[in-house]
Design goal:
Elements: H1 12-20, E1 25-29, E2 32-35, H2 36-52, E3 60-64, H3 69-79, E4 84-87, H4 94-104, E5 108-111, H5 116-120, E6 131-134, H6 145-150, E7 166-172, E8 180-185, H7 191-198, E9 217-220, H8 227-238, E10 242-245, H9 251-261, E11 265-268, H10 270-278, E12 292-295, H11 302-312, E13 315-322, E14 327-332, E15 350-351, E16 356-360, E17 373-378, E18 385-386, H12 390-396, E19 402-411, E20 417-422, E21 427-429, E22 432-434, H13 436-444, E23 449-459, E24 463-472, H14 480-488, E25 499-502, H15 516-524
Parallel strand pairs: 1-10, 3-4, 3-5, 5-6, 9-10, 9-11, 11-12, 12-13, 24-25
Antiparallel strand pairs: 1-2, 7-8, 8-18, 13-14, 14-15, 16-17, 17-19, 19-20, 21-22, 23-24
Helix pairs in contact: 1-2, 2-3, 10-11
């Protein structure tokens, strides 16, 4: 990203590019092609429409929809009136969606027509009335987005706000059964690039992958309810690139888009890279336009990476970070990727300019290179905190600005970070974070379940898969399918266990705590790290 001093908040992004490149294409979504000048006006209409609905700075605006150009109009339009966008994961089950809408207190929600039934099923559980606008059709008598937008003024609101103000509230899985609202500021989306611009004495030529020019074409195909989707989309708009938005990841459509639109940069998770490579048209596709393919959210098997480097013939950049740091804080340069493999390819790379990484022990003391502990991050992109969760914020974000990741690992002498395990109890499946506590809570209500422990097991396709280990109530018969079906009504499908083991008793320590490491051990034998 090229730092632009005139942009201090996301509200400035459409204004800046409308003034400097009004006729350049900002976004392509199917048949819809919008220039930066027209996009700026549409963002202003969103802002004025929200103000007309009674929203004020700090009001929460929810979005429950798949990726679209309209989503980013709503995001930057919300910035132009001082609101906070809450992107709701449409894969969640109704009780989970109701919790998020109640927790954030959204005043308005933009939904895709296909999710009208899902929203209707949770309205009775909401604590306050919510205004509904349908982005791509009409449903339940709710207004259509385009018709609503046409009724609003295209005049700029003039609102800028403060770089430290929260603009996005993104929900992550919760360690105690409920998701947490991560509050990200305007500044968090460009802070690293500002650091790079002002810290010229620390210029890193291996960060050239994050330089942009007017000819760049960015592909957004990761879901916008993740930082990988929203964050990558913001990067493209910030830099004035031509942004191609795909509704969702579909391998054939991604391959065709790369060929047709001459995509130069994109972000994928390893599972998506694998699906592209398995598609019959992959090796027929012209990838010559791609400068860099960025990947992250979970580790990538070396054999898969070798195949990808050979087929795509572009620069590969591994990223590591978390929602609480607005995405990537480390990177593994293209120069460190090789066909033969090397030690560094097992790492998550080193800190980007402006960020610091340390490995600390349980007392918070910094450890020497090679010693394993918890990975801590100090970055100007860090969150403002969890929404209405002071204790959880204090447990993750220290007073002096360090974020405790919950990941266990070590750092080598050159500052490369190696993730070995997790301090916090979390499963990463296909790039999705899943906390066992959520799954355990959902299944515990089944009439046959006496005790349950949920663990991660290796999975060739998704990296890790969810497994439940269950002790049945006396007289109950083991029926894995019935329990899985029960879980599916309470939690998102990707959180539902892929398999269930039934045991007589769960291993526990002297205080009664379940020893999940003992449960995991048979499935991870022969592996040198406990993440896949």
């Amino acid at each position: 990203m090229t730092y632009i001093p005139e942009i201090e908040t996301l509200a400035d992004v459409p204004r800046y590019h409308a003034a400097n490149r009004p006729d350049s294409v900002a976004v392509v979504d199917g048949d819809r092609v919008t220039t930066y000048g027209a996009w700026d006006e549409r963002c202003s209409r969103v802002a004025n429409g929200l103000i007309g609905l009674g929203l004020k700075p700090g009001s929460r605006v929810a979005a429950l929809d798949q990726n679209s150009d309209r989503y980013f109009e709503i995001l930057f339009g919300t910035a132009k009136m001082g609101g906070v966008l809450v992107s709701v994961n449409w894969r969640l089950a109704p009780p989970e969606i109701a919790y998020i809408l109640n927790d954030c207190g959204a005043d308005v929600i933009f939904i895709g027509e296909r999710f009208a039934g899902l929203l209707k099923s949770v309205l009775a559980d909401l604590k306050k009335d919510i205004k509904v606008i349908v982005t791509d059709g009409a449903a339940e008598g709710w207004p259509n987005y385009d018709q609503w937008l046409a009724q609003q003024s295209a005049a700029d609101t003039g609102y800028r706000g403060n770089p430290a103000d929260t603009i996005v509230q993104m929900y992550t899985s919760g360690t105690t059964g409920h998701p947490k609202g991560v509050q990200l500021s305007h500044y968090s989306f460009y802070a690293h690039d500002r650091s790079r611009a002002i810290m010229k004495d620390q210029y890193d030529p291996q960060l050239l992958w994050n330089d942009w020019d007017a000819k760049d074409v960015s592909l957004v195909t990761m879901p916008a309810f993740h930082i990988s989707g929203t964050g990558w989309g913001v990067v493209g708009y910030y830099n004035g690139a031509r942004n191609i938005i795909l509704t969702q990841f579909e391998p054939g459509e991604v391959l065709e888009t790369i060929r047709r639109d001459r995509v130069s940069k994109l972000v994928l998770v390893p599972a998506a890279i694998q699906q592209l490579l398995q598609h019959p048209k992959c090796r027929e596709t012209d990838f010559s336009s791609i400068k860099y393919l960025l990947y992250g959210a979970s580790p990538i098997p070396l054999d898969l990476l070798r195949e990808a480097v050979e087929v795509f013939q572009c620069g590969f950049i591994q990223l590591y970070g978390m929602t609480e740091t607005a995405g990537a804080v480390t990177y593994l340069p293209a120069e460190d990727h090789s066909f033969s493999g090397n030690t560094r390819m097992r790492s998550a790379g080193r800190a980007v300019t402006g960020a610091r990484i340390e490995v600390r022990d349980s007392e918070g003391r910094t450890l020497a290179p090679g010693m394993e502990g918890e990975i801590w991050i100090h970055s100007p992109t860090r969150m403002n905190g969890y929404w209405n969760l002071a204790e959880a914020t204090a447990a993750t974000l220290t007073d002096d600005g360090w974020v405790r990741t919950g990941d266990a690992g070590y750092m080598d002498e050159d500052g490369y970070v190696y993730v070995q395990d997790r301090v916090k109890d979390m499963i990463v499946s296909g790039g999705e974070n899943i906390y066992p506590a959520e799954v355990e809570s959902a299944i515990y209500g089944h009439p046959s379940v006496a005790e349950i422990a949920v663990i991660a097991v290796p999975d060739d396709k998704w990296g890790e898969a969810v497994k439940a280990v269950i002790v049945l109530k006396p007289g109950s018969k083991p029926d894995a399918n019935a329990i899985i079906d029960f879980a599916r009504t309470r939690i998102a499908g990707y959180k539902v266990p892929k398999s269930i083991d039934f045991v007589e008793a769960l291993p526990r320590n002297g205080t009664g705590k379940v020893l999940k490491r003992e449960l995991r051990k048979p499935y991870w034998e022969g592996r040198d790290r406990q993440v896949n």
